[in-house]
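Example (one chain per record):
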Amino acid sequence: MTDHRRAVQPEVPRPPVRAQLDPKRTRRYRLFSAAVLVAGLGVAVAVLLGHADHPQPEQLLIAGPLLAVGFLLSEQLSIDFDVRQVSWTISFAEIPLVLGLVTVPFEVVLAAYLVAGLGVQISRHKLRHLSYHVGIMCLEVAIPYAAYYLLRNDFTAMPVWAAASLAVLTSPLVSTALGLGAMHVLGGELRMPAAARLGLRSLVVCLMNVTVGLVAFVLVNTAPWGWLLAGLLAASMVALYRAYSGLLREQRDLETLSDVSLNVARSGQDVMNKASVLTNVLPPEDPADWQAIVERIRDQLNAKRVVLHLKLDTDDVRQLVAGVPLPEDTVPDRDDPILQLAGNHVRYFKLSDAADDVQEALRRRGVYEVLVVPLRGASQPLGAMEVHDRLSRWRGFGSADVRLLRTLSSHLATAMDNRRLVGRLRHHAYHDPLTGLLNRTGFREVAGEPVRGEDNCVVMRIDLDVMSGVADALGYAWGDRMVLAASRRLRDALGNEVPLARLEGGSFAALLVDRTHAQAQEVGEKLRAGLSMPYPVDKLTVEASALIGYVSNTTEDGDDTLDVDTLLQRADVAVQAAHSGSDPVRGYAPSMGQIFLRRFQLVTQFRSALETGQVTVHYQPKIALPSRQVVGVEALVRWRHPEFGPLDPDEFVPAVEATGLVDALTSFVMEQGLQRVRSWLDRGLRMSTAVNLSVRNLADANFPDLVAEALRRYDVPPQLLTFELTESGVMSDPERALPVLRRLHAMGVTLAVDDFGTGYSSLAYLRQLPVDEVKIDKSFVLGMGTDLSDMAVVRAIVELGHSLGLTVVAEGVEEDSAREQLVSMGCDVAQGYLISRPLSEERFEAWLRARTIRARGLRDETVLTLVS
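Predicted structure:
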């Protein structure tokens, strides 16, 4: 029999709160219950009047109690399942019903059924729905009796067992129809195919129960020891039903676990929208998502109510309720005894045997039993979950419910942990960890749609112009402080609604929507003024400046395929134009694009230029002071482009370094220089060659091996090869650069610090560097004749270098007076236009022949001395 009396209640169907608070549905349900009661009593009275079989005393005293016990046992061996949030029960009630139908009068069976059914309802505190329960119980007994009497009177030849079977089959049909009617009244819907399957399932189970009951009746009445066979048959049926019930429960539990985990994971998939990307906060929890999850848990446990205490942060706990709302004056908090006693496992509290404070907490909740389990993540508590009052079981929550809740809480906590982890990872993927602003990926995500769909969108790039100097002077931690301060100034100036990103270092980008060129210029000026104000860094005050370039998605070059990356690239071109011009705020013009095109062409054509001879090496001589002997040369790269002509190294070398081709460039210059040294050695001349190193060379752990191989190949002593490096290049990544320098120094290669005196930490780090030479920056040498401070700097560097045992080289010597001053200071080597400009290989050889004379050195070697 399918028994829907206990579950068809106003609080059960979804959405629970709306259904309970909807007065129209409440009135409809009360009218429906009254109609069921009237119909049940009416049919019962009609059956009594039409077939008044007076029961015998033994039937009342023996059969009645036995049938009542049978109905109670059938309730205990029931199988519960949920359909559209309404609990349905498959029980063995058809067995005592069919036995009563063929043995005792109607009123005995009806009385036994009412006593058993009402006893169950009273034990479950369901007296609010007494009218509906009484009505449906009367119908479930009266209609089968009416059908049985009708079949026996109209079909006299029909066997008793056949008439009883057909009559009892009407009971599940009545139950199913009334259950569907109650579901419709309470707001639930069930499609016809599902309703048909439900009715068919009820009929099949009913037929099996009726068959077992009739077979047992026949065995007991006709066969010797038939009661034993009937008992074995009943035990087998009970075991079969219990096994089926367990399998059904396990299947539903697994489905629930899967659904809850998937729902938690999917609930955070759509939070990375524009609004959440714009803010530097994790996506908020969506109450609607969690409400559906809590409803699913309540459905599976068939509980009166489920309360989820969801911990969002340290102080914020959100409570979600599925099922019957909590009483208005009951809001459990962290001091609630039930939550405090939850511990680390599922705890079960019952009103009849709980402590006084727990009993009071149960009464405040309006329940008589509760399961409570904490939700604990990998690193922090996530909340707790309460389950109140099992609806469809006489004995309340059982061990299967406890096991399910324990596993469910573990899965839920893991799913919540994973969801929050994914949310954090997704959030961090779109935001800069230092400033909390968008990163390049986040800016591309936010700006993509406006750039494609709206006119007059302006992408603005803002570059702090002192970041590398601050980082070199004070360290990168202080540079980060400046970036953070600048980001706050930008955010305050632009407001929270404007997408703002930190691209890298001290570079920022902003998206301005619906702004004209003039408005963008005005915003740029405002931002630059704010960023150029002094920055208080600890006890220092750092002066700063900013360069700003901007570009609109409405261009004049007819390009309709602009995307965010293209606009950022063009804004960067505008920043470069601002850097080279007098206006620190520049808008992009189509003509500026030629700069990028030229740079792109140079980078892509550089390798082929090496192979085709467009790139050559020029040599600038270095002489010893005061002997004026030629001690070596500096190898300098030159490129004569077939289209652009001679290129300044300052134009193509930075582009080559940025694109990773500097290894090829360094190898080319080193090879050419070593080849020259070898040819000079073959002629008896001992002159060294100096090659400039890049930051990327110093970061390559294999670079010393390449140098050693080249020295072996050309058979050049390592002392005749000098590598010149800038201090900022070493200090940008000293952990990787210093091991490379130490290996080169151990090989015997000469190491020189180029542009010495321009760095901020030269004195502090010079003793740590394995170097042999320092080269005074030409800006100081050129200013010695007119600026006493420059002369003092040069003198100090010479003295410092000598005190550390280093050779001092002065570059930029262009006047005789400067050379004489260097001689008087004790400078070791000079290099500059006074001696010679950088010369090609052929012209340098001609210069040697024309400007030097041969002499025998101290070690009986040929030396070249510069003539006047």
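Caption: The CA atoms of residues 772 and 806 lie 5 Å apart.
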